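Notebook B, p. 112. Complex prediction, attempt 2.
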Amino acid sequence: MQKKNLRLRLSQAVFIFILVSLIFSPFSFSDAPKLIDKDGRIYQLAEGMAQEKGTSPVKAEIFWLGNSSPDLIQIGIYFQIQPGWYLYWLNPGEAGLPPQVNWELPAGFKELKLEFPLPSKFYSSGYLVYGYKEELLLLSQISTPKNFSIPATQPTILKAKIDWMVCRESCQIGKEELSLDLSLIKLEQKRKAEILLKRFKEKFPKSAEEINVFLKEAKIINFEENNLFKEVLISLRLEGKDIHQIVDFYPLPIDNFIIEAEKTKYKSGLIELYLKPTLNEAKIEKIKGLLVAVNSCYSVEFSLNEASILEKI
Amino acid sequence: MIRRSKKFLAVIFLLAGLIIWPYLLQGQEKTPEIGSLAPDFTLNCLGGKPHSLSDYKGKIVVLEWTNPNCPYVVRVYKTDGIIPALQRKYKEKGIIWITINSTHPEHKDYLPPEKLKEIYADWQASYSHYLMDPDGKVGRLYGAKTTPQILIINAEGKLVYNGALDDDPRGQKSKDQKINYVELALEALLEGKEIATPLTQPYGCTVKYK
């Protein structure tokens, strides 16, 4: 009996110890590395300065990824990201900026669109992030002059000026100018590009027509009628044969509105978005974003023209 | 034996409550909205002297969140000189410009006051006061998310602007192309006009709270 009591007390003590440790865990500090200068002062070299010394955590490359139609080529901008760092999606979440690509193209070439793959949704230092860890492939569709074929018969140089914001605990801004001569495409490059494209194929958004999901009901709920700068709730009820495949919704930025990233929810066909208008007369006509399925994603656009407008009671 | 179990359960509930409490408090923080009264606070400046928002009652106050290890802050101070120029221009017009650093001391971006003094002097900063918010209480109270992020409080003590410095997060626009939201808001306030864009999406690095 005494032995039993002792065991009980011991297990209680262990349990309480665990609970006490849990209580203090939110107040505990991380073990971030520190530098101490010659005067004994503690400070850390800015990570932003690291890049000036050529130690950027991002390496960018450019690839020809093939033709999507006779007069349309696909160019990939591939980012290799060092472990722990991440780049941002078009909607970065609570802060951040997506990579930007500005093209300098020969006469007759035109950039039609730049596609971002499905990002991951994660928290970094308590902030919600839509971003990419380890690697990212951006896909650019470029139209060519008629009857253009690769390899080109004369030097045809595409120049991409790229800039990005890369973060972990701290952030860096990076930029690079990449160029690709379409008259010098080698077999080895082509193979590498094929492997890359195969790896990323399923990550690029598919068309909304490829999934049977539709908007059943849309509501715009105003929180305070008289205050134009208070938040609004957009509630979208989705239905369809494939609705069970959808696990999340990632919204794209909305002009003149701030999306409250951490409040965005998706559950059982219901999307909830909290938005703050930045202009007096700001109106929302549509919500664009990605419907995220288990192994793929779909680019969607929901019109709010038929939405019922409600006031919160 | 039953009494002991009850005591044990009571201790468990108490401890469980203590675990959940900080998280509940975090979720309940109510940040001021545009048009609402700016809550008072007291923070120490780089020299260690306390300063309260209420010390500047009746004046227009700019609250600027900063972190010199953020490349966006480096650009708007050191490279483009936008913030130092605004600080000089509006301090002369009687506006109080308070720069706040909410970086937690355990974060790798944290710098001690002496180092901060050196950096901002090198950047020719001209703030009225540089306040340290190491536990992030004031940053969280105001919902500051990025550096730089600017909030403006009018002479009546109400929050009238919250957001970005300008519409050029990448620093690619010329002076004539960019919209400087802070300058427009301060000019409107000085002229007694309504601020056309009181809320914008701030850009930059996240505030490095604990």
